[in-house]
Every structure is written in C-alpha cells, then in structure tokens.
Model the fold of this input.
Amino acid sequence: MGERRGGGWASATATATMDLLRSEPMQLAQLIIPVESAHRTISYLGDLALFQFKDLNPEKSPFQRTYAAQVKRCGEMARKLRLFKEQMTKAGLSPSTRITRSSDIDLDNLEVKLGELEAELLEMNGNNEKLQRSYNELREYKLVLQKAGEFFHSAQGNAAAQQREIEVQHIGEGSMDSPLLLEQEMTTDPLKQVKLGFVSGLVPRVKSMAFERILFRATRGNVFLKQAVVEDPVIDPVSVEKVDKNVFVIFYSGDRAKNKILKICDAFGANRYPFADDLGKQLQMITEVSGRLSELKTTIDAGLLHRNNLLQTIGYEYEQWNLQVKKQKSIYHTLNMLSFDVSKKCLVAEGWCPIFATNQIQNALQQATFDGNSQIGAIFQVLHTKESPPTYFRTNKFTSPFQEIVDAYGVAKYQEANPGVYTIITFPFLFAVMFGDWGHGICLLLATLYFIIREKKLSSQKLGDIIEMTFGGRYVILMMALFSIYTGLIYNEFFSVPFELFGPSAYGCRDPSCSDAYTVGLIKVRNTYPFGVDPKWHGTRSELPFLNSLKMKMSILLGVAQMNLGIILSYFNAKFYGDDINIWYQFVPQLIFLNSLFGYLSLLIIVKWCTGSQADLYHVMIYMFLSPTDDLGENQLFVGQKFLQLLLLLSALVAVPWMLFPKPFLLKKQNEERHQGKSYALLHSIDDPLEMESHHDSHGDEEFEFSEVFVHQLIHTIEFVLGAVSNTASYLRLWALSLAHSELSSVFYDKVLLLAWGFNNVIVLIIGIIVFVFATVGVLLVMETLSAFLHALRLHWVEFQNKFYQGDGYKFHPFSFALLGEEDE
Done:
C-alpha cells in the first residue's frame, strides 16, 4: 500500500492490483492544458473515468463562468430533444436503442439540424391542429345540419297534416308540435305575421339543463328551445376532447333576445353554426360539408404520415444525439470548473486520481494533444497536500452490493480497513444462522438464479422499485441462499421436517413409550450423527430446550468472534497509520477487557460441550463478580479455573483505567512537544507528526483542548465497557430469530399442511396446500428474509463496525461519460 511523504500522499509502487481491504492509493494532480486542446482532453478523460475534478471557481455563479454560453446552448438542444421524445411518445413511436459508433458530431451542425427539425415539427403540428380543428368543426356542423333538418322536416310534416285537418273540419286549434313560424301563418292574418329568427349549434350535455333554464329566465320565456341527443361523443374543436353533446335550435323574436342568446351560448361553450330553413339549401350544405370533410380527412392523414416519417427519422438518431448533447454539456460543465492562467492561453485543472492510473491519464493527455494538432502538450504533475483524498474501491458486480451495504453506514476513511471484505462472508452467514432451513434456502437460490441467468436482459430493462432493489442485490441473496442451505443442513430442517441425509440417527427407542418421555427413553445405538443435528431430536419433548441451549451458546460464540475481529482490525488500522498510542492504549485494553469476560464465557461453553459437564454457566459468570474467592464446587469445569477467573477479573478491572487515562495525557504531551519544536522531522519523513496527529483524536493544528479530549476518551471508554455487554447480548438475536423461523415453519407444516392432509378430502387438501404455499412464500420467504436481513445489517453496522470503522470519508466520483445514462434514469 501507499505511504505518506512530505505532508502529501504518494506511493512507493503504483501497482494496479485490486485490493478491497484498503482503498486505492490516490494522488492530487494538476493538469495544465492548452486552450485549443482543452475540450478534447476533457472528453478523453471522461472516457477514461479515472479523474475527479475539483472546482477551482467556487466563488463564481454558473452564469459568470467561461463556458456558460456553451452550457446554455447544450441545455437548449436538450430541450429540443425532450420535445422530440414527447412527440414520439404521443405518436406511439420509441427511439431506436442502437447507438452508431460514428465519429463525434460537430456541435454547431447538430444545433442547426435540431433547430431545423424543431421548426419543421412545430409547423407540422400547427398545421395539423388547424386542420383537425376545422375537421371537428365540420363534423359538428354536419351533425347540426342533420339533427336540425330533422326538426324542420318533422315540423313541416305535422303542419301539413294539421292544415288538411283544418280544411276538412273548418276549425283551427293550434298544435304544440307545430313550429311557431307555421303556427303563426295559420292562426294570424298574413299581414300581421312576425318573422322568427333561430340559432342552432351544439352544447355539452352536462350543461344542457342549466343552459335551458338560463335561456328561459334571461328571455322571460320568450324563446322556443328544441334539443336532440347526439348518440356518440363528439370531439370538441376547442378542447380536442371527446364530449357528449346535444344539438339545439332556439327560436326567438327580436334583436334583444338574439343578443342575449348569443352571450349565453358563449358563456356555456356552445358552438353555433349557421342553418337555412330551406330544404334545398340544407341538402346542398350537407353535400358541401361532406365533401370538405372527405378532403380534410385525406389531408390530415397525409400530414400525419409525413409527421410520423419525420419522427421515425429522428428516432433513428435520437439516442446518438441525446448522448452527444449530454457529453458536450458535461464537458463544458467540467471546463467551467477549470481556471484560466494569467496569459489566458491555457487552463489549469486540479483533481484526484488513483496512482495506478497515472500512465493512462498521461497517455490520454498525449493522445488529445496529438489528435488536436496542438503545438503544446498538456502537463501532468503531482501536488502534495494535507487534504484527505477520496476513497476508491475497485469493485465488480459481485463485490459491489456488499460494498454498498458498508457505504450505506458511512464511506471508509482514506485507506481505512474496509469491512466490506469480511461482509462478503459474515453478512450472509449471520443471515443464514437466523434463517437456517435448507428448503427455504433452495427457494431463495432458485429465485436469485433466475435474476443471475437473465441479468444481461434484465439490466437493460426498467424494473419496478422492489424488483430493481432485489436485482441489484442478487449476488448478496445468492450468498444468503447458499449459507442458508448450509445452516439448514446443520439444523437438519427442510420446511421444518428433519431428514436422515448423512446416515441413520444415533439414537433408538428403548421401549415403545419413549416418544412421550425425555431423552432418558432414548439409547445410543450407533455412532454420532456425522453432520448437524441428529434428526431424532425433532418432534421430541426435549427438542426445544436442546435447540435453545445450542443456538444461544452458538450465538454468543459467533458474536464474541466477530467483535474480536473488529478489535483486531482496529490494530491493523492503527499500525497502518503509525499510531502507537491507539495500539497500546486502545487496542490492547479493549482486547483484554472483552476476552476477560466474554472470551472466558466462550471458553467455558466450548469446554462444557467437549466434557459434557452439567455446570451452570449463569452461576459461574454471576458469582465470578459477586464472590470471586468462593469455591466453584460442582460448577468447576477444569483445574485452576478459580485462579484463572481471579486473574481475568483483575485484568478486566485494570483494562478500564488503562483505556481511560493514559491516552489524553500522552496526546497532551505530544501536543506540547510539537509546539516546543522537539518533534520536527525532515520533510520526507515517513512518520510526519502533523499527519500522525490527525489520527490521534486530536485536532491537528487547531488549539488543543485537554478537557475535550479527556471527556471524549471517557465517553469512548464507557461506551466500550457497556457495549461489550450489550453487544454480546445483541448477538442473541441470532438465537431468537432462528427459533422464531423454525417454530413458524413448524406451525405452517403441522397446523396447515398435515391438518389438511388428515381430512382425507381432496378439496380441503388443495386449499391446505395453497394456504401453506402462500404462508411459506409471504411470511417465511419474504417477511422473514427481510427481518433476518435487517438484523444481520444491524449486527454489522453497530456490533462489528463500531469497534474499528470510522466511516467519515467521501467517495471518489470521477468524471465519467458512463454515468450519463444512469443519471438520466
């Protein structure tokens, strides 16, 4: 790994081997790029994706930066592309997913081309809207002509029949069905007849009743309104939406009534159309409207075909244009982060990059200079800094989700020991301890194998949020499934049913009544069952006490082992950073304290298992504190146990002040020595005290506050001492969840499946199987999986990582074109 020199970060060897235990050695580099090749250089670095640029113009707003105009142009082109995509979506077309690997399109030419296409498309849309509006208006007009024509035809027929009746009977009594015009002609003197006017059109059906009431009130009943329902919804010319409408004809007398009617029609959104009461003119108008409708339909279809052809042409190139615009915009955004030198002839960039990428970056700079025909090459030089570099782990599709689990807690400090390496094994294993059932494990395995086998196809599709999350963690679920099968074989549970997979049971019944007794009724007739729990334990009355004891002790052993691993990793962290104080006054007392108590408990568990002793471990641990000098009696497991307990108890008591007092005083002394000039070293000394100080819980060059450091150490000590107890107890969740999973599985098997089987009825059996399957999938394979996952997550974040992991770093985010598509989604 790298080492620090001269207040900066450097590396003795720039190897490119993947190392997940510590993040990649990083360096702060400065690039001096000629203006004429700057764009091409940034483009090549974006393809390389190994350089994280720093913003050298933080005081400038986005509008004050050098390339603000180019960014604005790219934003405008992106707007046009969004318009094209919206139009393609409306037309039911989708952009072509193929991206031709052609040479980069010139930005100016692309801008002109997109402008022309936008203008052409908008013109087509405008013309189409006008034609469509005219077409909808003509369709409404045709409906008015047909329906209103029926009014007049019906009224004329009634009037003729009434006239014949008058002539025969010589009496005149007006009919309510006859139109006002003809009625007046019959009942009044021809010299005194009043000519009635009329307005025709369509009104939305939901407004027709209100429309009629307002007309009646406004004209005081001096109108005659006739409405006819249009069976099918009509496309409104204004709103372009399908609306149920009624055709109306309003007869009125006088200009004042006409003005009121027109205003009411406008207020209710009623479309008015002219109408002639002459039958010949009506037929002529219907013929003309039908002809114009046919012509408009042909014109609209031709326009839509032309528009679809244009959108298809755009769709073929859309993805390439979209990617190109995003690239250009990101390049200019990055160029805005660079600063001009005083001569305005070159740009200066600063940023972080992995040391192994030095040669690749220099090659990219040289290639950009060569391709751009620049007379001056770009300069790459390493800067020394005290700023902490970003954290960069090179992961693959298998290790990435495990690293994400760790990063969700906090990104590792630069070159801090990475818990992600151990999480690959410990996380799925602790999950499986709680989930252990090899039948359920096989179900999980089959589900995740589906995602893994089809990962190429699924990775290019848009999945739902839950499916997307499951697909992203498919390799975590794979490991969880494999470990669940392993622990399930140890527990000997297949949907809670035991199997004699590795041979017959070691026990047999001494007499027929032994199944109702405790293990006294069983005798050992064969060798010990070779792997896992003997199947004979399942179903006996002593099954629960036995498995409880086994799983509880196993949980403590696993918890103490993982906490010890965390403390040991804190030693490697301190050693890597050259921090002797943390080694001697934090790592050593923590290791002694934890193992003096719970390491000793783990030892007692193993000895008890090996010897078959009946000692009460609760009694041993409690009286180790309450009466350390008393004889152990029947609870003694080995010779010298009493002396060992006294020694361990004394060690635990000594470890607490050992953690608390020396470190603050040593830090105070170190701070005083530094300010007195006693700890100055050469610039290129490996153990630079300025750097080393930042890892000693002090505040570097800030003012040293002894009280703050002491209080911090006091809190840290109390937290560790109490945490040693609470964290060990927290690992008992492994026992609790394993027991819950096993009992739930047993309940579903016994009380659902076997109960349904006992009825000897096919329908009940089918219902029982369906309920069992849904209960198993819903509760055990979904809810229990999520529950065990969250508990395993907590054990790693709280009980394991707090022993050594600071997690106060920040991620390495290189400038990369590969992320453009992901950001869009």
